[in-house]
Amino acid sequence: METKPIITLLRYAAIGGNILFILWILFNAMDEGFRGTMPEKLSAIGLIGLLTVNCTLLLTKPSQKQLKSQ
Predict the structure, then answer these.
(1) What are the boundaries of each domain within the chain?
(2) Could you tell me what percent of the chain has a pLDDT over 90?
């Protein structure tokens, strides 16, 4: 199965968007001196974690063996 160029472009655009969003969250946190309520801190950490996992999953391409077993 051949990877289409548009899929690859969208994959890297999503990764770039995730990284930009993570940097934006970190910038706002630094601007506020990392102050905030516990729910705000936990939600920021959770969101950064989910975006990082999303980037990791987008970067790892499934092998042909994994695709056939599904």
Answers:
(1) 5-56
(2) 69
